[in-house]
C-alpha cells in the first residue's frame, strides 16, 4: 500500500454540507420558478468544450482564467468559463432549433481566478443563466431585466438595484475623447474595474500605468490627460432618475453624431419599466457600467444588494448580437443574464436571509428496543408512504438521550419515541423538537423540565400519521 494521502482542496474550491446545499437548491428552485413563468426552457451542455471554441470568444482577461484540459487523444480542451459560449455553439450546431430560442441553464463553471472565498468568489461556481437567441426586439432586454427583479424579490434578498447601461452609449466615448474605435474594448476593460480599483487607479491605467500593491507594473493605455478628462466627465453621470441620466447623456454628447439613436432604446425601456411597475427603486440607469466581456453589443446590466453594496454584482448580463457569428458566419441577436448562485448564497448568508436547514427528514424514528426493530421499520415506512420525510435511527447508540441529541444536531422537527410502556398501551410518543429547543433556554431546573415535558405528548399508534401531519403543520405556522 502507498502512503497516506493528505486530504486537501485546491484554493478557490469548497465542499458544501447539508445546510448550504439546501439553501443553494432553494435559490435554484426559486429562480427556476420565476424563469419558467417567463417561458424559458431548460438546456444542458457538457462542462468540457474544445479550447478553440472557448478561447476564441474569451476576452483577454477571461483568456487567462481558462482551465485547460488534455483529452484522451491529446485534444486541446477546456472547462467552460461561462455558459453563453456553449449556448452560442449549440445554436450554431443545431440549425433546426426554433427561434426565438429561450433557454435557462444552471450548471458549474470554472475560472482560474484569484479567489476570495469569504466574499463569494470561487474557482468553481454555479451560474443560473437565461438567454433569448434570435430576438431583435428590445422587449427581450426588458424581460431579462424584469425577470432579474422578480427573481430577487422571490428570493427575499431585501432591497436591490439593477444598474443598466448600454454599449451603444459607451461607444460614443470614442469620438468624444478622440480615441480610435479599435481601442474601445481596452477602454471598457479598464472602466469595468472602476468599482474595484477606484477612480484614481482607473485614470492611471488609462494614462501612464502604475505599480500595484504586489509591486507588479500595470501598463497604461497611453491616453492624454485631456482625453481622460472627457471620460471622467462621462463617469461623473451618476445613477439618478432614469430621465435625468438620459438628459445628461444627451447634453454631454450633443456634438457627437448618433447620440439620439444610442439613447432611444433606453428611453423606450424606461417608459415600459414604469408602465409595468418597475420603478427607480429597482432599476436605475448607470452609464459607468462597462462589463469586461468583449462580446456585449447593446444593453448591459448588473444587480447589487443594497444592504451589501460592497459585495458587488450577484446577477449580470446584457445583449450580445455578434457572439454566434464566429460559428455561423451570420449575426444572431441575443440577450441574457446570469445569477451567480454560490456568490448570492454567500451574500444571503451574510444578510441572514438564507434558509439553512441541516436535514431532509421531518421525523426521526428512534430505536428504544432492538427487539422491536420491525415495529420501528413499520412506523418509518408508514410515514414515508404518507409523504412525510422520515429517518429511522441506524446508529450504534442505544440510549434515547443520545438519539435525541442526534436529531437535535440535525434540527429534525419531530421525534418518534416508543418504548415498552408505549407498546403496551398501543401508543407512540411525539417530541416537538422546536418547542424543546426554545424551552431549553427558559427552564434551568432538570426536575421542572421532566415534570413539564415541553413539546412531548402521546397519541394512539393507529393515529401516528395524522398526528405527525398535524404537528408538522403547527410547526410550519410558528
In whole angstroms, how far apart are the ends? 55 Å
- Count of individual helical segments: 21
Helix content: 40-55%
Give the mean pLDDT. Answer: 90
The total beta strand count reads 18
Spans of 5+ residues with little confidence (pLDDT < 50)?
Answer: none
CATH domain topology of the largest domain? BirA Bifunctional Protein, domain 2
Overall 3D form: elongated
Q: Based on helices, strands and strand pairing, what is the structural class?
A: alpha+beta
Largest sheet: spatial strand order: 1-5-6-13-12-11-7-10
The CATH superfamily of the largest domain turns out to be Bira Bifunctional Protein, Domain 2
Strand content is 15-25%
Give Rg in angstroms.
28 Å
CATH architecture of the largest domain: 2-Layer Sandwich
How many structural domains?
A: 2
Major sheet: size, sense and barrel closure?
8 strands, mixed
- CATH class descriptor of the largest domain: Alpha Beta
What does this structure look like?
The structure is a single chain. The chain is elongated. The two termini are about 55 Å apart. With about 475 residues, it is of the alpha+beta class. The protein has helices at about 20-35, 50-55, 60-65, 85-95, 140-155, 165-170, 175, 185-190, 195, 200-205, 225-235, 240-250, 260-275, 325-330, 340-350, 375-385, 400-410, 420-425, 435-440, 445-450, 465-475; strands at about 40, 50, 70, 75-80, 100-110, 125-135, 160-165, 210, 215-220, 285, 300-305, 315-320, 335-340, 365, 390, 415, 425-430, 455-460. The strands form four sheets. It has an eight-stranded mixed β-sheet with strand order 1-5-6-13-12-11-7-10. A five-stranded mixed β-sheet has the order 15-14-16-17-18, sandwiched between helices. It has 21 helices and 18 strands. The chain has two domains: about 20-350, Bira Bifunctional Protein, Domain 2 (BirA Bifunctional Protein, domain 2, 2-Layer Sandwich), CATH 3.30.930; about 365-475, Anticodon-binding domain (Rossmann fold).
Amino acid at each position: 500500500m502507498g502512503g497516506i494521502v493528505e486530504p486537501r482542496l485546491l484554493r478557490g474550491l469548497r465542499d458544501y454540507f447539508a445546510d448550504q446545499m439546501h439553501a443553494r437548491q432553494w435559490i435554484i428552485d426559486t429562480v427556476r420558478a420565476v424563469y419558467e413563468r417567463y417561458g424559458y426552457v431548460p438546456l444542458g451542455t457538457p462542462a468540457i468544450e474544445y479550447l478553440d471554441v472557448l478561447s476564441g470568444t474569451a476576452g483577454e482577461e477571461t483568456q487567462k482564467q481558462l482551465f485547460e484540459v488534455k483529452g484522451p487523444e491529446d485534444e486541446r480542451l477546456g472547462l467552460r468559463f461561462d455558459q453563453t459560449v456553449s449556448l452560442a455553439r449549440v445554436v450554431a450546431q443545431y440549425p433546426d432549433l426554433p427561434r426565438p430560442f429561450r433557454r435557462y441553464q444552471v450548471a458549474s463553471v470554472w475560472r482560474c481566478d484569484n479567489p476570495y472565498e469569504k466574499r463569494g468568489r470561487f474557482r468553481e461556481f454555479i451560474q443560473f443563466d437565461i438567454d433569448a437567441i434570435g430576438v431583435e426586439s428590445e422587449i427581450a432586454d426588458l424581460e431579462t431585466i424584469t425577470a432579474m427583479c422578480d427573481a430577487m424579490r422571490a428570493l427575499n434578498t431585501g432591497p436591490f438595484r439593477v444598474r443598466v447601461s448600454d454599449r451603444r452609449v459607451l461607444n460614443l466615448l470614442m469620438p468624444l475623447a478622440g480615441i480610435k474605435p479599435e481601442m474601445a474594448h481596452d477602454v471598457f476593460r479598464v472602466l469595468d474595474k472602476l468599482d474595484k480599483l477606484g477612480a484614481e487607479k482607473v485614470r492611471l491605467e488609462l494614462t501612464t500605468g502604475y505599480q500595484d500593491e504586489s509591486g507588479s507594473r500595470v501598463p497604461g493605455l497611453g491616453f492624454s490627460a485631456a482625453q481622460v478628462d472627457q471620460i471622467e466627465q462621462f463617469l461623473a453621470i451618476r445613477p439618478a432618475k432614469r430621465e435625468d441620466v438620459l438628459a445628461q447623456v444627451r447634453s454631454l454628447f450633443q456634438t457627437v453624431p448618433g447620440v439620439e439613436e444610442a439613447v432611444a432604446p433606453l428611453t423606450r425601456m424606461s417608459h415600459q419599466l414604469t408602465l409595468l411597475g418597475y420603478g427607480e427603486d429597482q432599476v436605475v440607469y448607470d452609464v459607468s457600467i462597462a462589463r469586461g466581456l468583449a462580446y456585449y453589443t447593446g444593453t448591459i446590466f448588473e444587480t447589487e444588494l443594497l444592504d451589501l453594496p460592497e459585495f458587488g454584482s450577484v446577477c449580470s448580463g446584457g445583449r450580445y448580437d455578434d457572439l454566434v457569428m464566429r460559428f455561423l458566419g451570420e449575426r444572431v441577436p441575443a440577450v441574457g443574464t446570469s445569477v451567480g448562485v454560490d456568490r448570492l448564497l454567500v451574500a444571503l448568508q451574510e444578510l441572514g436571509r438564507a434558509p439553512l436547514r441541516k436535514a431532509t427528514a421531518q421525523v426521526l424514528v428512534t430505536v428504544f428496543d432492538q427487539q422491536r426493530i420491525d415495529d420501528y421499520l413499520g412506523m418509518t415506512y408508514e410515514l414515508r408512504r404518507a409523504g412525510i420525510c422520515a429517518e429511522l435511527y441506524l446508529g450504534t447508540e442505544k440510549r434515547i438521550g443520545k438519539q435525541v441529541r442526534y436529531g437535535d444536531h440535525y434540527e429534525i422537527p419531530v421525534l418518534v419515541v416508543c418504548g415498552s410502556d408505549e407498546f403496551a398501551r398501543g401508543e407512540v410518543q411525539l417530541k416537538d423538537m422546536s418547542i424543546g429547543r426554545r424551552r431549553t433556554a427558559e427552564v434551568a431546573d432538570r426536575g421542572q423540565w421532566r415534570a413539564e415535558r415541553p413539546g412531548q405528548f402521546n397519541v394512539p399508534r393507529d393515529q401516528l400519521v395524522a398526528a405527525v401531519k398535524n404537528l408538522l403543520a403547527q410547526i410550519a405556522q410558528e
